[in-house]
Amino acid sequence: MKSKKRGKKEIRKQKDELALLRKKIDYLDQKIIHLIDQRMELALQTRNFKKNITDAQREKSILSNIKKMPLRFVTEEFSQRLIKNLIRESKKLQKKQEGLIGFQGERGAYSEEAAMMFNKKLVTIPCSDFKTVFRGVFEGWFNYGLVPAENSTEGQVNSVSDLFIQYDLKIIGEIILQVHHCLLTLPGLKLRQIRTVVSHPQALAQCQHFIRKNKLEAQPFYDTAGAARMLAEERPSGVAAIASKRCAELYGLSVLKEKIEDYPANQTRFLVLARKGLDQGYKCSIVFSLKHEPGSLARSLNLFAERGINLTRIESRPNKKRPGEYFFLVDFEGSLQEAEIQKALSQVKNQALFFRFLGCYNRL
User: Fold this and answer.
1) Where are the alpha helices (DSSP H) in the chain?
2) Are strands 326-333 and 311-318 parallel, antiparallel or unpaired?
3) For tag attachment on the chain, is the N or C end more exposed, with fewer CB atoms within 10 Å?
């Protein structure tokens, strides 16, 4: 009788060990696929920097490097076949590539959603910060970039405004995205079990009432989607993330509460960047600086008023190289094809110490 019980116990133990090993294999399988996906993304980015998709010398070098790897169980034949298949798939992707658009954040970020609204055929490329988006477009890594300019609740995104001064890029479109925040948790958690909520500082600010009402500790994170990804991967106890509903689908999280933003009309204005601008649109943007003297800004702005040109935004940013002086970013209705706008811009340019036309564009 004892031997039978011992036998059943041993069988259960073996089953548990098998289940654990299989769980580890499943985890590694998913990790391998994610790494392959990242490799394909990088391969797509190389397309903008080479004349031909096929580079025989490069492929030979890759296979040679793989051959030198000290592997225990993977045979040379298998590793070579695997890499050749990866190269073949990479070239297929590069052949049908429509173009790349960079955005700040992880997969599932609101910026990626706006980028897909601009053109679903473009490949969205996540970037760690806004500067990488600007630099990527400026240096040709991406065909386009997408950045948030302002939020209806929290106002201007100052770091983006500063980058328009640093990089000579054009705005070719704007997108208004209704932003609905969700409280995302690991599956099975209840609201009473949540003590901390993580998200981008702007998202936390846009959900202050919900956070205070539920007595949650707010912890800033570099990105909304990044917070969701961290939650899914690290699985911290008693923590939730504020992010989009799409993030729940991407990272296997549960939507505990929807539309937790303070203001239902919460929206963000995004701008599409390119190296070459457009000649027409319903709106234009400029950035300029003036002599630091009384009435200089009023004189410049009056040039628009005299011609009946409606200004839709005026923002000032400090000149970091010359403390006490400022750059002014101005949006106004109209097109470069209109004579009155051409005259106004010409006169502002004559008065300015620094002047840059940022673009003529439509709402998409």
Assistant:
1) 2-46, 56-67, 76-95, 110-118, 130-138, 158-166, 201-206, 208-213, 224-234, 245-251, 296-305, 339-351
2) antiparallel
3) N
Q: Which of 210, 221, 270, 288 is catalytic?
A: 270
Residue span of the structural domain in which 303 resides = 279-363
Q: Could you tell me how far CA 25 lies from the centroid of its own chain?
A: 31
262 belongs to a structural domain: no
% of the chain residues with pLDDT over 70: 98
Mean pLDDT of 38-53: 84
Of 95, 118, 145, the residue that ends a domain is 95
What 3-state class would DSSP assign to 130? helix
Last residue of a domain, one of 126, 157, 179: 179
Residues 69 and 133 in one domain: no
The tokens describing 342, both together, are 């051409």
Looking at residue 48, what is its pLDDT?
77
- 99 backbone φψ class: left, alpha, beta (φ>0; ψ -120 to 50): left
Q: What is the average pLDDT across 253-272? A: 93
User: If we measure between CA atoms, which residue out of 267, 312, 284, 272 comes closest to residue 147?
Assistant: 272
What is d(CA 44, CA 97) in angstroms, rounded to the nearest whole number? 7
Q: What is residue 238's three-state secondary structure?
A: coil
pLDDT tens digit string along 227-244?
999 999 999 999 999 999
Which pLDDT does position 16 carry in this prediction? 85
pLDDT for 6 equals 67
Q: Are 160 and 134 in contact (CB under 8 A)?
A: no
What is the dihedral angle through the alpha carbons of 221, 226, 232, 235, rounded to the nearest 10 degrees? -20
Structure tokens at 26: 């499943």
Per annotation, catalytic residue among 103, 221, 268, 288: 268
Q: Is 312 a catalytic residue?
A: no
Residues 6+ apart with CB under 8 A from 81: none
Tell me the C-alpha distance between 327 and 348, whole Å: 13
Summarize pLDDT for 55-113 with one digit per residue, the tens.
889 999 999 999 888 888 999 999 999 999 999 999 888 887 778 999 998 889 999 99
Q: What is the pLDDT of residue 5?
A: 65
